[in-house]
């Protein structure tokens, strides 16, 4: 059967309606582009804020204060019982759902929290220490004192609070099925935390003392009394790659002491390099101690 082929410029059928439809589609596209509402533009805005470099607070007295911007780092450790799949230092970080990260320019709550392998200060892993009443800005936090952990995720007009609650059949960590940890926009008792000394035998003696910066501690949830943990046996696939699951569970060894999975460091910035952290700061050269050693040897009888 013979068939006639026509070029697109040939006007047939509802050609007038087709032309108007194409013009409307083009206008709609240009309007969304100018407003930054295209999917690719919204995705770029979200990722740009999450990966934006940030500056951490610099401590002058060696302690953590209310209002400080810090990294919450789980130090490098190895599980003697095996099964560990995530290694190295891990930083607590904001992790939006992968599908939502592709189509949104904002973070929807509740938002997931993971532990990322990179420890460079950026929007998604920088947290702020908050006081409960907002009147203790600049004062050091103390062992056993309630505080909040919040993040802006790189945005200028957003504040998300780290929280947790008892696990249920409908709400728990994705792989371990332990107590879930999330970010919310409501500052309630479910978002209150406490810092405790990592050695349980000295925990009572340190109660009420200021929390030192860049030193391992245990962070406990006030409502459930469970410790924040980086579950290194479970890796999650995220928009940014494979990262470690974060849950709220106290992992105890045979001596009833928390395992390294529950150890965290509130890390501050390096005063000599604002893009680095104190844990990356090199130790003073051993050559500087040589004159001191010579002086000691000459003074000796």
TrEMBL record:
Q: Does the keyword Metal-binding apply?
A: no
- Judging by the UniProt lineage, the source's domain of life is Eukaryota
| InterPro entries referenced in this protein's UniProt entry, alphabetically | CF161
Q: What is this protein called?
A: Cilia- and flagella-associated protein 161 isoform X1
Q: Where is this region: Disordered?
A: 276-301
Sorted alphabetically, the keyword list is: Cell projection, Cilium, Flagellum
List the Pfam families hit by this protein, alphabetically: CFAP161
